[in-house]
Amino acid sequence: MDNKEFRKQAHLLVDWIADYLDEVENYPVKSQVQPGDVFNSLPDFAPTESEEMDQIIHDFKTKVLPGITHWQSPNFFAYFPANSSYPSVLAEMLTATLGAQCMIWETSPAAAELEEKMMIWLKGITGIPSCWSGVIQDTASTATLAAILTARERCANFESNKSGPEEFKGLRVYCSTETHSSIEKAVKIAGLGSSNLVKVKVDKDFRMDFVALRQAIESDIEDGLTPACVIATLGTTSCTAIDPLSEIAKITSRYDIWLHIDAAFAGTALFLPEYRSMIEGIEHADSFVFNPHKWMFTNFDCSAYFVKDPELLIRTFEILPEYLKTSTRGKVNDYRDWGVPLGRRFRALKLWFVIRSFGVDGIRNKVAEHIRLANWLKGRVLEDNRFELLAPVTMNVVCFRVHPLGIAGIEELNRLNEKLLNQLNGTGKIYITHTKLNGCFTLRMVIAQTYVEQRHVEAAWEQIRKMADEVCA
Amino acid sequence: MDNKEFRKQAHLLVDWIADYLDEVENYPVKSQVQPGDVFNSLPDFAPTESEEMDQIIHDFKTKVLPGITHWQSPNFFAYFPANSSYPSVLAEMLTATLGAQCMIWETSPAAAELEEKMMIWLKGITGIPSCWSGVIQDTASTATLAAILTARERCANFESNKSGPEEFKGLRVYCSTETHSSIEKAVKIAGLGSSNLVKVKVDKDFRMDFVALRQAIESDIEDGLTPACVIATLGTTSCTAIDPLSEIAKITSRYDIWLHIDAAFAGTALFLPEYRSMIEGIEHADSFVFNPHKWMFTNFDCSAYFVKDPELLIRTFEILPEYLKTSTRGKVNDYRDWGVPLGRRFRALKLWFVIRSFGVDGIRNKVAEHIRLANWLKGRVLEDNRFELLAPVTMNVVCFRVHPLGIAGIEELNRLNEKLLNQLNGTGKIYITHTKLNGCFTLRMVIAQTYVEQRHVEAAWEQIRKMADEVCA
């Protein structure tokens, strides 16, 4: 493929892309293919000869596209969103073209410095302390792993050439029972042992019970164990419960424990002044992560990780072979030492495009509208006596179930709601997913998609009610 | 920004992108900015109001671009390349548009199944055993971490709820002194302790000394330690030395040790039948990684990780919270359980575009041409008595230095070559980086860029000779 053919194909693709984004709500939001459908439609061996791009793109449309779940559809209310937006796609086009490897400053100075600046912008917008430092990670899973590793090394006094299993014995990590599974994965990866992850109970609103946290820590200390890290979640995955940060921070300060804040999804709510109270106490914390790639209209992957003391992070990850030594070392940020992978994409560019193109007010307005729509939906759930709310609506996630009169058994209710979920998703008209809250099969409706409007939420609610009629009949 | 404006801007951008790729060799390949230049050109606060895309792209061209090192320039001979190509950029445009989150099969069936198929294609092309399973990771660093974690858990008998520091005491990992720094980083992350990484000496050609490996393992066993993992490198970072895999595999088989093969850069050479001997013995290994994002014309990130037994990998990473339970579980590949991060981009698409657009023969021919050009350069180095070769040219990396008559001291020679390197890179005409081999400051010239031709290598050599005249004068 030469430059001329590329130009032609790229223009054709741009028109397809613009059409797609314009019409994406008409696609079945959750792919309706069966396991094996796509796999079996493709040959088992790579072609020896070059194929025409027309043919490849034709196959993309006919074979791959039916197997895609359309995360950019305004009818997507599942999981948490992986939002994109027009400026973000433009930036990703440039990122792919430049193909710059951003492991250290020297390998692309603009990437390192734009990243530094974007982290400063995000601090200013969200209220994260201005003296902290930020870095873009791929995912919150990796950022949380970085936090737990730093906490681990801190307990072993950063004796990087000495610390090993001997020093890591009895290190304890605390989170709530509602915390994301990535915490358990990180504890396991860090070699601390899953049994050293303490899952603290939650209150009736699914927030960490800070009295129980204090008791667990004190009991561990009595037993000769070492509390290493507490993870507070702002916006749990199931129902966006907000752990009481300022109370938790008092405890971690008192016992000198690393406090990591996981606000992967909900961090974007900090654009709104009325949500700032969520991070009261952050000055006593050590690290904070939120994902612009979830609710901030920026393509995955783009996870913003902030730390109070970047030196501790660097000492956790730094290894300096000869082939990576440069004359600028120490004068600039070499972000490869701020996380797990060495290689890094130019991810700051899309943040820059998104923030400037929307403007802070543009993002703020969209986020506020999502929260308004969630509260509208909450109102509908409350006024229909066949439905019930299963958790407080703290921002834009509504947890509910159908609960017809006469059905009291939890098993039967769970089966009924699972059936409702599957039938709803089977229509291809909306996509929602589930969780369990106090053993109850719970439908989660997340209103956070870039292009979602009132009419989509109204149509979704209409669809849910109609399907509930069928399922309960 | 609405759909109409996006369409307009995307078309404008396509023309800029095509022009850029056409003219990229005319840009100064290594950015000439100073620390702070880009950072200081940008405001400290995010704009409140939306800005016009014309302005944003104008700023990209005037403020960011001068700070970019042009990895897609055919004058880029530094590090290892992070290659892109026309079909890869087209695929990345689609990936960004779909914005599909590919953590599990259900979240985008086509992404999971295309990934499975592409890994089958790569096995067929490279000679990796067909009974192995593959998965795309972000980087070789992460894949190697996965290998070491699996080896660690295997030693602890996968007692996932029990294994912790107690079980990890005395686990030993082996690699050569020439192995990539990511091994050390992974050992540290896995909590095994840096002192449990044994760096085995190399022979005169920088290949792992397998007799020394056997001795180290036997001595450790005598001392009551547990050999957990050996990393064999095919294509070391400094000089692409190729560890003697079949000899190493005999040792790991005998002592039942996990054998991981790191072919991050050089794996692409397996497209050529004459390089297949590199992986003799692979059937006795356990895992293998190579990066299509280095030398296979596929945008970063795309690291292909293959394992003999995927069940062990899954048992290492699997954690199953309620909100990720699906009805297809067990029938399909849920790749989130195959690595560190939960979230995953749709990375198989670009592999599909690249392999089909080039055809296997197209990639093979390009790779063979790079190797031919490296050998051409090696000939020039050998015939100019001011220069000397510092390592065998095993494929497409040439390690050399200037060594004028009358200078014998290693310190003086190192300073001279460092000066030569800095002055060469300062011209912006070529970009090469260095390593140290036996204490000698070594210039590395990597010939692997997508668009590199004989004329670029000739011009580079001319530039090096001219600059050597100046530096040695």
Keywords:
homodimer; 473 residues; alpha/beta; Aspartate Aminotransferase, domain 1; Aspartate Aminotransferase, domain 2; 2 domains; seven-stranded mixed beta sheet; four-stranded antiparallel beta sheet; 11 strands; 43% helix; globular
**Straight-line distance between termini of chain A:** 59 Å
- Our Rg estimate of chain A from Cα atoms comes to 24 Å
Strand order, sheet with most strands of chain A: 1-7-6-5-4-2-3
Q: What assembly state would you assign to the polypeptide chains in this entry?
A: homodimer
* Level-2 CATH architecture of the largest domain in chain A: 3-Layer(aba) Sandwich
- In what range is the share of β-strand residues of chain A? 5-15%
Mean pLDDT of chain A: 96
Give the SSE order of chain A as H and E letters. HHHHHEHHEHEHEHEEHEHHEEHEEH
The tally of domains of chain A stands at: 2
Can you tell me about this structure?
The structure is a homodimer of 473-residue chains. The first copy, chain A, has two domains: 1-30 and 69-84 and 361-473, Alpha-Beta Complex (Aspartate Aminotransferase, domain 1); 100-345, 3-Layer(aba) Sandwich (Aspartate Aminotransferase, domain 2). In chain A, helix 6 (140-155) packs across helix 8 and helix 14 (410-426) packs across helix 15. By secondary structure, chain A is of the alpha/beta class. In chain A, the strands form two sheets. In chain A, strands 1-7-6-5-4-2-3 form a seven-stranded mixed sheet, sandwiched between helices. A four-stranded antiparallel sheet of chain A has the order 8-9-11-10. In chain A, strand 2, helix 8 (181-189) and strand 3 (197-200) form a beta-alpha-beta unit. The mean pLDDT of chain A is 96. The first copy, chain A, has helices spanning 3-23, 37-40, 53-64, 86-98, 109-126, 140-155, 165-168, 181-189, 210-222, 245-255, 292-295, 310-317, 348-383, 410-426, 454-472; strands spanning 133-137, 171-176, 197-200, 226-233, 258-262, 287-290, 303-307, 387-389, 397-402, 433-437, 440-446. Chain A is globular and about 60 Å long. The interface between A and B is large, with 157 and 157 residues.
